[in-house]
Amino acid sequence: MPDTSIVFDGVEHSFGDRRVLRGIDLNLTQRRIGIVGANGSGKSTLARMINGLILPDSGTVTVNGRDVRKNKRQVRRDVGFIFSDPDRQIIMPTVVEDIELSLSRSVKDKAVRHTKALQVLTDFGLDGHADQPAHQLSGGQKQLLALASVMVLGPSILVADEPTTMLDLRNTLMLRDVFAGLDEQLIVLSHDLDILTDYDRILVIDDGQVVADDEPAAALSFYRKSMSR
Ligand SMILES: Nc1ncnc2c1ncn2[C@@H]1O[C@H](COP(=O)(O)OP(=O)(O)OP(=O)(O)O)[C@@H](O)[C@H]1O
């Protein structure tokens, strides 16, 4: 994994008069980090701060040494983001065109771009689907396409916000394996705790605060207990 760092320093955030994040101090350097917490606890807000989709009311978020507030463009290049619903991210009509769009900045020659896009589809298990309308893919295939389109942009960090919510067990396991093969730093928000059991670090968020920060067995056990009270 390339050296990456994500630092939250005294981060606070409110939507209207609802405080959503309170005093978040974090230094995220591990390769695979999971974030869990009840609905509405603030996970997505925290995750969206890593690529500047949401800026904190106070405090700072620093990614690879850059203050997100001041370097939005570079930070967006460093941090890829995928959502639960891949339809939000698939833009072009056919599968291969979607990858070609992501490559359009880095590969100027059309023929080279097409060849590279086909290679990417193979790498992400989508060979044979190049000319298929993207909306005809299964949920799992769409998530792979959204992921491939983000990864070809060359981020050093990938943030995934509940990436398996819309997937069946087979596709969930497949995505877990694809994630396991990525070199980049990975931050995954999930209600599916099983996909996080071999991660390096788990954060448990409750009411806008980090209430546990540990290796998976301890953190997930803490979370399960706190949810069953
Ligand atoms: N754009 C917004 N405007 C107003 N309130 C918001 C906005 N985004 C989130 N919230 C509120 O902030 C709180 C935290 O939301 P957030 O999406 O960060 O939680 P979450 O932990 O990701 O939840 P979930 O597990 O349900 O996805 C919730 O009460 C939510 O309603």
UniProtKB/TrEMBL annotation:
Query: Where, by residue number, does the polypeptide cross the bilayer?
Result: none
Q: Which PROSITE patterns match?
A: ABC_TRANSPORTER_1 (PS00211), ABC_TRANSPORTER_2 (PS50893)
Q: Name one GO molecular function term.
A: ATP binding
CC terms in the record's Gene Ontology section: ATP-binding cassette (ABC) transporter complex
Alphabetized, the UniProt keywords read:
ATP-binding, Nucleotide-binding, Transport
A Pfam family this protein belongs to? Answer: ABC_tran
Q: Which part of the chain is the ABC transporter domain?
A: 6-228
Alphabetized InterPro entries for the sequence: AAA+_ATPase (IPR003593), ABC_transporter-like_ATP-bd (IPR003439), ABC_transporter-like_CS (IPR017871), ABC_transpr_CbiO/EcfA_su (IPR015856), ECF_ABC_transporter_ATP-bd (IPR050095), P-loop_NTPase (IPR027417)
**Which segments of the protein form a coiled coil according to its record?**
none
| PANTHER family found in the cross-reference section | ENERGY-COUPLING FACTOR TRANSPORTER ATP-BINDING PROTEIN ECFA1, HEAVY METAL TRANSPORTER
Per the similarity annotation, which family is this?
Belongs to the ABC transporter superfamily.
Task: Name the chain's protein.
Answer: Putative ABC transporter ATP-binding protein
Which organism is the protein's source?
A: Gordonia malaquae NBRC 108250
